[in-house]
């Protein structure tokens, strides 16, 4: 693993080890901008990784550039564990959506709220904040329209799918809406929080939406089959074996949460 590395004009990548879900082991953090720099994803809870990240962040500032803030895409532990530590350590504000700040366990730092459509000007480039709820209520992405680049947080990942946790305010309807919104941007480079950069964004967004809709049909069919067989509405755990028959057994606990997210969506749409 090479870190840091430049991956686009005005964008550097520094992955850090985090307690994220397999197959991922790291969360990608980014430095974006020219003379003014915004750092994205204060992710790691591990002391050695925090120390390495701060050395890197201070070296960025030591190159005649100025770090203006640290942005957290959402409140999950593998994205926000060092939010206060990094912001206070660098003496800069912590940027995030109000719904993210509401859910942060530690927010003892100067907070700066960002909202959908806000433009953050960093030298000769402006990054637009996109509020993209679904995976998390306060999730935000950053879009460089000129460079056709998107920092996607946990909206997508390279090599895996994204959980929509119903026990943590996940929303499958909103998630699918936001995937379609991101696809319509016409980006050519997507930078996820987990995995390598994605150079076929349209293909990935299309795959994500199609995969979710395929799974939704399996969940619906499993629900109806179990309801008929049992003579009552099934529990979520009772539909997982059929709805996720193509998923390894050891992943069924995660599949249960995904199935619940689909069932909530189907209920809201009046389909069950």
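-> sequence recovered:
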């Amino acid at each position: 693993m090479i870190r840091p590395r430049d991956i686009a004009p005005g964008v550097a990548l520094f992955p850090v080890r985090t307690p994220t879900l397999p197959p991922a082991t790291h969360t990608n953090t980014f430095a974006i901008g020219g003379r003014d720099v915004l750092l994205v994803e204060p992710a790691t809870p591990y002391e050695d990784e925090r120390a390495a990240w701060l050395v890197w962040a201070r070296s960025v500032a030591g190159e005649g550039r100025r770090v203006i803030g640290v942005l957290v895409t959402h409140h999950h532990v593998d994205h926000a564990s060092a939010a206060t530590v990094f912001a206070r350590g660098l003496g800069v504000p912590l940027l995030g959506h109000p719904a993210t700040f509401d859910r942060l366990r530690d927010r003892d730092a100067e907070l700066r709220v960002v909202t959908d459509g806000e433009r953050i000007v960093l030298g000769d480039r402006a990054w637009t904040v996109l509020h993209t709820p679904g995976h998390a209520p306060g999730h935000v992405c950053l879009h460089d329209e000129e460079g056709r680049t998107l920092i996607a947080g946990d909206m997508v990942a390279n090599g895996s799918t994204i959980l929509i946790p119903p026990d943590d305010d996940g929303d499958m309807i909103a998630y699918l809406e936001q995937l379609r919104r991101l696809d319509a941007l016409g980006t050519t480079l997507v930078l996820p929080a987990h995995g390598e950069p994605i150079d076929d964004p349209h293909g990935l967004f299309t795959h994500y939406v199609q995969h979710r809709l395929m799974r939704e049909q399996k969940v619906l069919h499993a629900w109806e089959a179990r309801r008929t067989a049992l003579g009552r509405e099934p529990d979520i755990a009772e539909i997982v074996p059929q709805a996720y028959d193509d998923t390894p057994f050891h992943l069924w606990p995660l599949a249960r949460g995904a199935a619940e997210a689909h069932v909530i969506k189907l209920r809201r749409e009046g389909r069950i």
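The chain has a mean pLDDT of 95.
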